[in-house]
Amino acid sequence: MKNPLAAVRGAWRYPVSAYDQKSAMWLLSPMLVVLMVVAVFPVIYSFWVSLYDLKLTRPHRVPFVWFDNYLKIFADPLFWESVTRTASFTVMSVTAIMVIALLMALLLNQEFRGRRVLSAILLIPWAIPYVANGLMWKWIYDSGYGALNGLLLQLGLIDKYLVMLGDVNKTMGLITNAFVWKEVPLATILILVTLKSIRADLYSAAKVDGANVWQRFLHITLPALVPGFALVMIYEAMMAIRHFDLFFILTEGGPAEASHVLAWQVYVETFRKLAFGTGSALAYIMAVATFMLAFFIIRSTSRKL
Prior knowledge:
CATH superfamily of the domain at 67-127 and 171-302: MetI-like
Shape: globular
Radius of gyration: 26 Å
Largest sheet: none
Strand content: under 5%
Number of strands: 0
Helix content: over 70%
Order of helices and strands: HHHHHHHHHHHHHHH
């Protein structure tokens, strides 16, 4: 008489039928349909809209203009000013985030009392929604009762409350500070995870060879952090280029267009001027620029891996 357990083990070892790819595709088809409707169709449709001179102020006259919307955007001086401000904001933000996140990750990678509490506190800015973050910083920067003005006044650095967000020279720096505060926690986690993956025996071997702390950091830690740095750079650059919330809540593109970035220009063209054709073209230009930047970062960092 055959052993029933042996028969069961044989069935698991040699399945009766092979993996049916057609059945798998049928099971995945609802998800694919949802993705097509929610993600792919709006992207294709918005590109189609960008080829029309679509304005809701005259909805019955929508001429097909090919790429005239793109040519009109490239000929607009305000567009290039917005590109410059967006690039400046992105470079300042990503640089500050990378430096602060690296320092925080190096600190949290050490063993000390209160490390878990500090890690939990670090996550608070990341957990705050973007709109709430913008409102909080708007109160901090307020010219009448803002905490920043109060602190500077108590320290004797100013003799009266200042209109922080009304200063053309300070606006972008203040918005960058609010953005960096929100984004540093996630960047720290990503870099810390990369730090944890470095083998401890590399540091032990370096110590035996007489390498000091700086040499170990320069020749072991930094090269190993390249994948984490690449991921943080790509994500944070994408977030900075398309960021809209803080510019809307804090300044609305002002003062005197000092914070008029590309994301704000897309909003103005689409929802204030109701020029959906031009707005869609601007959005596509932003998307292509973001894709090219991500591709450049990936190619540059992959050569060093």
